[in-house]
Amino acid sequence: MLKCEVYGDSAVLLTFSEGFSEEIHTIIVNYTRSLKEKKIEGIVAIIPAFTTITISYDAHIISFKELKALLLHIPLEEKKGQLTRLIEIPVCYDTEFGKDFEELILHTGLTKEEIISLHTAPEYLVYMLGFTPGFFYLGGLDEKLFCPRKANPRMRIEEGAVGIGGQQTGVYSVASPGGWQIIGKTPVKIFDKTNLETPFKVQQGDRIKFVEISLEEYKNLKHD
């Protein structure tokens, strides 16, 4: 059942479920699309996440009571939305970039080759974007690769670094502090601030496939 709550002085928090799944993800994607199509006057921003949508609004234009009534009137659709894109992201797992392979090997009991094989096997679902511009949160990591974040996070992780943190894997879209276990790097630019029309390479609902490349291939792609 959809829960609608006050979230600060000018925002609403919609909660669709206590736990996330592909079914809940589909409902949130469909709901977000329907909400945007309605173009409700007063809504400032719509921010979908794993199990929630945060909606900020201008209280001078629409009240919480009015907005809540409109939001609860939007149907919850479980059918699949528009076709998703499959985006292949090349990753170099060379030791030059895979700074935390030893820690991951010790924690999982797997070899480096087994870790790479398991990491590149799935088609990951993009549940949401956040943390930094263009950073995407994925579902679908093999549980054999689950690994705690670092006890002492690094002050700076390079743009393009590929890591594992807890039950998730992802790509650092910009250089930033972080505590994920770094296993590789992609030459692909995930966030391009010079591209004003489509700065984010990945969107919510896309599927991601990591593809292993050599260090030489990485350097060639990086300089294209």
Describe this structure in words.
The chain starts with a strand and ends with a helix. The protein is 23% helix and 29% strand. 28% of the residues are buried. By secondary structure, the protein is α+β, with helices and mostly antiparallel strands. The mean pLDDT is 92. It has helices at residues 22-38, 64-72, 101-108, 112-120, 215-222; strands at residues 3-6, 11-15, 43-48, 52-57, 86-92, 124-129, 136-139, 154-157, 161-165, 168-171, 176-178, 181-185, 207-213. Strand 9 (161-165) and strand 10 (168-171) form a beta hairpin. The chain has two domains: 3-72, Gyrase A, domain 2 (2-Layer Sandwich), CATH 3.30.1360; 86-222, Cyclophilin-like (Cyclophilin), CATH 2.40.100.10. The chain has five helices and 13 strands. The longest helix has 17 residues, at 22-38. The strands form four sheets. A four-stranded antiparallel beta sheet has the order 1-2-4-3, with helices on one face.
